[in-house]
Automatic annotation (TrEMBL):
Annotated GO biological process: polyprenol biosynthetic process
CDD domains the UniProt entry points to: Cis_IPPS (cd00475)
Cofactor binding, note field: Binds 2 magnesium ions per subunit.
Protein name: Isoprenyl transferase
Pfam families in the cross-refs: Prenyltransf
GO molecular function annotation: ditrans,polycis-polyprenyl diphosphate synthase [(2E,6E)-farnesyl diphosphate specific] activity; magnesium ion binding
Ranges for region Disordered: 1-27
Positions annotated to bind substrate: 41-45, 53, 57, 85-87, 89, 91, 204, 210-212
Cofactor(s) this protein cannot do without: Mg(2+)
Length: 258
């Protein structure tokens, strides 16, 4: 045992080494509980390869599977993925049409694997604007996985943070009118949102450095990482690198360094 090291410290350092060997993360790394990703760059990824934008979305869906599994393996509790914004309806009809079909293609291919890995699927946003068939496959995946206890994989779809806040304010106002609520705390108000948790780490792929109407409330004190990697190229090691970088940040929440 190195001089000056207690038995406890030795045990800690041995278990850190073990953690590092099994997770692929450097020793002593803390995995964030709640992570969010703006999965950007599918279109540019495809264009660079002379492919239609939809080919980028198809490859991007495979990345959702890869990253979901890795986040689950590392012990992330909740991963919120921005899949379709309230602004994305502005895109050409054929692209929107393909994006509406993508949940069906994704769950047909991967639901069994999500089940085998104990991953629970949820969604954030308003499903009502999607075709019935899209709504159905998403609701079915949510039901099928609802008893799973591993990672919560939350797909933000027809999601916009301003819309989320507006709906929350409306629901709150209704509760006040009905005498059920008055003077809520921030924590209580967050329960009116699609996503009640605070995000520890936000990643945006593909070089853009903006929030694009994602989780405006929940990102108040998140650490932000912008990576040039396009979403279809983002892989397990990219995720581990982001988590390692997150560990180098000092979160102060408005206080001073301890
Ligand atoms: C993200 O990739 C996927 C969605 C927004 C649906 P993009 O389609 O935005 O790809 P770029 O930004 O045009 O490259
Ligand atoms: C944000 O990406 C939305 C999703 C990833 C679903 P966009 O590509 O739509 O964002 P902007 O237009 O570059 O801000
Ligand atoms: Mg984009």
């Amino acid at each position: 045992m190195p001089a000056g090291q207690t038995m406890q410290e030795r045990t800690d350092s041995m278990s850190e080494q073990k953690q590092s060997q099994t997770t692929g993360l450097p020793a002593g790394i803390q995995v964030p509980d709640t992570m969010a990703i703006i999965m950007d760059g599918n279109g540019r990824w495809a264009k660079k390869r002379g492919l239609p934008r939809t080919a980028g979305h198809k490859k991007g869906a495979d990345t959702i599977h890869t990253i979901g599994l890795e986040a689950n393996r590392l012990g992330v509790k909740k991963l919120i993925l921005y899949a379709f914004s309230t602004e994305n309806w502005k895109r050409p009809e054929d692209e929107v049409g393909y994006l509406c079909k993508l949940p069906g293609l994704f769950f047909d291919r991967y639901i069994r694997d999500l089940m085998n890995n104990n991953i629970r699927v949820t969604f954030a946003g308003e499903l009502g604007r999607f075709p019935d068939s899209t709504q159905k496959v998403i609701r079915r995946a949510v039901e099928q996985t609802e008893d799973n206890t591993g990672l919560e994989l939350c797909i933000a779809i027809n999601y916009g943070a301003r819309r989320e806040l507006l709906l929350a304010a409306q629901k709150y106002a209704e509760d006040v009118r009905n005498g059920r609520e008055n003077n809520v705390t921030e924590e209580e108000f967050s329960k009116y949102l699609f996503v009640p948790e605070e995000v520890d780490l936000l990643i945006r792929t593909s070089g853009e450095e903006r929030i694009s109407n994602f989780l405006l409330w929940q990102l108040a004190y998140s650490e932000l990482i912008f990576t040039p990697t396009a979403w279809p190229d983002f892989d397990e090691s990219s995720l581990r690198e982001c988590i390692t970088e997150y560990n180098h940040r000092e979160r102060r929440f408005g206080g001073v360094k301890a």
